[in-house]
Structure formats: C-alpha cells, structure tokens
Design goal:
Blueprint: E1 9-15, H1 29-46, H2 51-57, E2 59-70, E3 79-89, E4 93-102, E5 107-120, H3 131-143
Antiparallel strand pairs: 1-3, 2-5, 3-4, 4-5
Length: 163
C-alpha cells in the first residue's frame, strides 16, 4: 500500500482502447466514465478493498454521484495516468477527485468528482467500513487537506430563465 502523501496519488494507468473511439475519431464520452470507474477501483484496491475484504467484511462501495469535465480530446492509444485526491471520507462515505492526464504530453484531459457510499452486500444498506480501510483513507484525506483541485465542487449551470 502506498503511503499517504500531500500530492495527488497516482492510482491507475491505461491506454485509450480502440473500442473507446467514436465516429469523430476521439474517445467517446461514455468511456471516460468507464476509465474513471476503474481509477476509483484501483484506489480502493490500493487501500485494502479487495476480494478478501468483500468476503470477510461483506461490504462494498456504490457510486451515487459523479461529475465529469471533458477538457481535451483523446485519441486511440493515448497513455493515461489517473491522479486521485481524497476530498473527504467518514465511516460510510468517500469523496474522491480524479484527474485524467495524458501521460506523454502531460496535459489534463478530463476530471471526475465522485461520491461513494459503503454498503453491505447482503441487503445494500449503508454501513460503516472496516476500521483498517477507513484509517488508510483518512490518512490520505488528512494528507490532502491543503489540496482542492480546480473543478472540484463544480456543477452544471442551469440554463432555465427562472434560475
């Protein structure tokens, strides 16, 4: 397990796959969600949320909210690096911010803010996570207290005339 530090954590690497490319010749928006979901899973695995945890604790994580910003196009084969900041965590909730970076050109292509709940596998009730997993995530949160990535806390602005 990587120790907590004051920089975003490098959690996941992948290259843009050919099936992810749309009719415009760039990465389709739906696959950004797939890649960000894999980055969340990679972070969770690095902190101890593995098959043994799911079996022994009977808990899992459900994503309940996300917000993706598309900043630059990506093409087939582009190498991606995901950097993760822990914005918040408590016994039942996890708030992450992922930055998707083109690893060779070193530009941010997209970001995702994601909110997850820890639930029981048996009845999908929100429940506290096991203490060792929580402690690992709290250490990351504490290390990231001075970080607030550009784009965190954003939402889509309303276009309604009465708003």
């Amino acid at each position: 397990m990587e120790a907590a530090n004051a920089s975003p954590l490098e959690t996941y690497r992948v290259s843009v796959a050919e099936p992810w490319i749309d009719y415009n010749g760039h990465m389709n928006e739906g696959y950004y969600g797939v890649a960000f979901g894999d980055a969340s899973d990679a972070y969770l695995l690095q902190r101890g949320f593995d098959e043994a945890y799911r079996r022994d604790v009977g808990g899992t994580f459900y994503t309940v909210e996300t917000h993706i910003r598309f900043l630059r196009e990506l093409k087939f084969g582009d190498p991606l690096l995901f950097r993760t900041t822990v914005l918040g965590v408590d016994a039942k909730k996890l708030h992450l911010f992922h930055s998707m970076v083109h690893e060779d050109a070193d530009y941010e292509a997209a970001t995702q803010e994601v909110f997850l709940l820890h639930v029981t596998l048996a009845d999908v009730a929100v429940t506290p996570m096991a203490a060792p997993l929580l402690a690992a995530m709290e250490a990351d949160r504490d290390a990231h207290l001075d970080l607030y990535p550009d784009g965190a806390g954003n939402s889509i602005r309303s276009m309604r005339p009465d708003r």
